[in-house]
TrEMBL record, chain A:
GO cellular component: ATP-binding cassette (ABC) transporter complex
Role: Could be part of an ABC transporter complex.
Organism: Pseudohoeflea suaedae
Membrane topology note: Multi-pass membrane protein
Name of the protein in its database record: MlaE family lipid ABC transporter permease subunit
Subcellular location: Cell inner membrane
Alphabetical list of InterPro entries matching this protein: ABC_MlaE_roteobac, MlaB-like_STAS, Permease_MalE, STAS_dom, STAS_dom_sf
Automatic annotation (TrEMBL), chain B:
Keyword terms: ATP-binding, Nucleotide-binding, Transport
Pfam family membership, one: ABC_tran
Any one GO molecular function term: ATP binding
Nucleotide-binding listed as a keyword: yes
InterPro entries, per database record: AAA+_ATPase, ABC_transporter-like_ATP-bd, ABC_transporter-like_CS, P-loop_NTPase
UniProt protein name: ABC transporter ATP-binding protein
Protein origin, superkingdom: Bacteria
Length: 400, 280
């Protein structure tokens, strides 16, 4: 409201001082006169970028086809001229002279000088003229490129994994180069600060599974088995999977963006010339922090989901906490918990390595940073789900 | 009121004031950077703006370009106060300004050609072919190879980025261009070429140039007038000769230091306190 009132006052003030407004000039105009001596063009109005729109079509036509032997261009009536207007005149002059005509330009000498100073260019010279590719290339070139990229990704991932296994940068006179401070800082970012959202998400997921399970099992009079359902599903699969997906979105993207912007600003190169291994310094602490944080977050997620399931069971099916816990103790054993938890460090490694690989691929532009962050999140979520499926098949095969 | 001021100004200098800064104060919290600063820039001149690091050269430029809030004062560009102008006039004023940022600030996702065409597309109603031709003209004018038009900023060298950014600043043939350290990071030959280019463009296009620079070569070779920022104000403005006369330790050591003397060929200011300040 206030700003509206202000604007109105300002408008009124402007109306008062109309003379001080930025004057609108007459747009450019062109007057053609054919005489026995040749063609005479009289230019008038504002021949600047903002004014030439009205005459550019006519000037383009003249440049293409004016075939009089003598052309005289009179700038006397024009109020302004800048490169845009000068270029229109210059183009007409150049093209007409190529056809063997003579062109004279009359006007203030600064303008004539400007016109003469402009280079001879064509629109094509600023566009890359690439020969059209045959259909075969159009179809198979992207496919081949993506195959090579996939291979490069695998090599880069193996390289980063290898560097990480070797450990952080070895320092002179010191055994291990792991800097505890940076690992702890990363643990805070990726672990502690993720707790609220993980707890909330898992609580809701546990509650939803319990509710839907209870509704379906009610048909068989087996409502109490909802505890088995939630317990096994959450501990074996859902807990670690959803936590990993959340962390891929939350921390994987952050890792890619951090490393990528450091790459863009040559900070990664600065590390290299100091003799530091960028992977040891940048990637290793993050990878280590992820491998520690993800299992811990999974434990928290499991507790939250089971609590959510217990609350919903009480509300919808009247299963008390005592009954819930008793049933849970029978349904699950250590192997259920272990089979879920074993997966967590692998998921963490996948997320960290994917994020680092993409981060180190960032090029010079802001756009490439955005593309890499997207690719990092999409790829790591995809691979996390893929690996979860592989684990499920593996467990089934060994009857775990 | 300001109208009469303008005419008085013109009668006095017989030159059109294209940029008029009056009584401008900029402060960040309690830290006052510019304190009721006055500055005039006249049409068709190349003004070199110098000052020690951290004296607020960039702050002033950003305040003029309205990238920073000022606490008080008026800034009139082409005789118009941006604060009281309406929406349409503001756009027209924006079209008459060009800015070359220190690091180019080219849009990294666009090619050089597309960068130059951004203001054209935004403000003009011209066909693509004419815009391409005008872009090619600008690219040649700033001394770039025509093939640079199809390249992305990340594929250009530092000097080429400066030239491409200048071409973008000149896209609409502005009345005044602001150059922030245009020759920093260029080799002496490239810097000299750039200076020459700016002088040449001033002569052909009638540009007014506001140049923040530390390059003594530029100051001696192309600048018509120099303004020195110090103690939160414009300490002095005038020609090189006037700078050399001016009695201020910083100005003396700047323009009479060893580096300045070898460039200018001016006699050593023996007896001046330049020596004393340089060795400190």
């Amino acid at each position: 409201m206030l700003s509206d009132a202000k604007k109105k006052a300002r408008g009124d003030r402007n109306a008062g001082q109309g003379a001080a407004r930025l004057a609108d000039h007459e747009p450019a105009a062109l007057d053609l006169e054919e005489s026995p001596q040749g063609l005479v063009l009289r230019l008038s109005g504002d021949w600047r970028h903002s004014g030439v729109a009205s005459v550019q079509e006519e000037m383009a036509r003249l440049a293409k086809s004016a075939d009089a032997n003598r052309i005289t261009i009179d700038l006397g009536q024009a109020s302004h001229l800048d490169t845009a207007g000068a270029w229109l005149v210059r183009r007409l002059k150049l093209r007409a002279e190529e056809r063997g005509g003579t062109v004279t330009v009359d006007g203030p000498h600064t303008w004539v000088e400007l016109i003469e100073a402009l280079p001879d260019v064509t629109a094509a010279s600023v566009r890359k003229s690439e020969p059209r590719k045959p259909l075969f290339n159009l179809v198979f070139e992207p496919l081949g490129k993506s195959m090579y990229e996939l291979w490069d990704d695998l090599v880069a991932a193996a390289f980063i994994l290898g560097s990480a296994v070797r450990g952080a940068q070895m320092k002179l006179n010191r055994g291990s180069g792991v800097s505890p401070a940076s690992v702890v800082a990363q643990l805070d970012h990726m672990g502690v600060r993720a707790v609220p959202i993980i707890v909330l998400m898992s609580f809701l997921i546990g509650a939803i599974i319990a509710q839907q399970g209870a509704f379906q099992l009610r048909y068989f009079g087996a409502e109490v088995f909802v505890v088995d359902l939630v317990g096994i599903l959450q501990l074996r699969e859902i807990g670690v999977l959803l936590t990993a997906i959340m962390i891929a979105g939350r921390s994987g993207s952050a890792i890619t963006a951090e490393i990528g912007s450091m790459k863009m600003r040559e900070e990664v190169d600065a590390l290299k010339v100091m003799g530091l291994n960028p992977i040891g310094v940048l990637v290793f602490p993050r990878l280590l922090a992820l491998v520690i944080a993800l299992p811990l977050l999974t434990i928290i997620a499991n507790f939250a989901a089971l609590f959510g399931a217990a609350v919903v069971s009480l509300a919808y099916s009247g299963i008390t906490f005592d009954v819930f816990l008793g049933r849970l103790r029978e349904a699950i054993d250590l192997s259920t918990i272990a089979s879920g938890m074993i997966k967590a460090p692998f998921m963490a490694l996948i997320i960290g390595i994917m994020a680092a690989v993409e981060g180190l691929k960032v090029g010079g532009s802001a756009e490439s940073l955005g593309r890499r962050v997207t690719a990092s999140v999409v790829k790591s979520i995809f691979v996390v789900i893929l690996v979860d499926g592989l684990f499920a098949m593996f467990y089934a095969a060994i009857d775990f | 009121m300001s109208e009469t001021e303008m005419t008085a100004e013109q009668a006095e200098g017989t030159r059109e004031t294209i940029l008029e800064v009056r009584d401008v104060t900029v402060a960040f919290g309690k830290n006052v950077v510019l304190d009721s600063l006055d500055l005039d820039v006249y049409r068709g001149e190349i003004l070199g703006f110098v000052g020690g690091s951290g004296t607020g050269k960039s702050v002033l430029m950003r305040a003029i370009l309205r990238l920073l809030r000022r606490q008080s004062g008026t800034i009139r560009i082409l005789g118009h106060d941006y604060d009281t102008a309406n929406e349409a006039d503001r756009i027209k004023l924006d079209m008459r300004l060009g800015v070359l940022f220190q690091h180019g600030a080219l849009f990294s996702a666009l090619t050089v050609r597309e960068n130059i065409q951004v203001p054209m597309r935004e403000y003009l109603d011209l066909p693509q072919s004419l815009m391409d031709e005008l872009t090619a003209v600008k690219i040649e004018m700033v001394g770039l190879d025509p093939s640079a038009g199809a390249k992305y900023p990340s594929e250009l060298s530092g000097g080429m980025i400066k030239r491409a950014a200048l071409a973008r600043a000149l896209a609409l043939d502005p009345d005044i261009v602001f150059l922030d350290e245009p020759t920093s990071g260029l080799d002496p030959i490239g810097a000299a070429e750039f200076d020459e280019l700016i002088a040449q463009l001033r002569d052909t296009l009638g540009l007014t140039v506001y140049m923040v620079t530390h390059d003594l070569d530029s100051l001696f070779s192309v600048c018509d007038r120099i303004a020195v920022l110090g103690q939160k104000k414009v300490l002095v403005s005038g020609t090189i000769a006037e700078m050399l006369e001016f009695d201020d330790p910083w100005v003396q050591s700047y323009f009479r230091g060893k580096r300045a003397r070898t460039i200018s060929g001016y006699p050593d200011g023996s007896g001046s306190n330049a020596e004393q300040y340089r060795t400190e």
